[in-house]
Design brief:
By secondary structure, the chain is α+β, with helices and mostly antiparallel strands. It has one helix spanning 31-52, and strands spanning 6-9, 14-17, 25-28. Helix content is 34%, strand content 18%. The longest helix has 22 residues, at 31-52.
Length: 65
């Protein structure tokens, strides 16, 4: 799965967030570290959402852009 992320320089290195997953963000001293860290954050985010929705009636819709 691919997610768009926003990488921004900071005084400490780089901040990175995933606009498609509200509240999912990370940081790193270098661009690569920040990108590696957001991958872990996305995995953890999706695992938490999956656990939260366990047993719910989940459906998918298709949207044409």
């Amino acid at each position: 799965m691919k997610y768009k992320v926003v990488l921004q320089p900071t005084e400490e290195g780089f901040s990175v967030s995933c606009p498609g997953l509200p509240g999912c963000w990370s940081q790193g001293a270098t661009e690569q570290e920040a990108l590696d860290n957001i991958q872990d954050a996305i995995r953890e985010y999706l695992a938490a959402v999956s656990e939260f929705l366990q047993g719910a009636d989940i459906r998918e819709v298709e949207v044409t852009v």
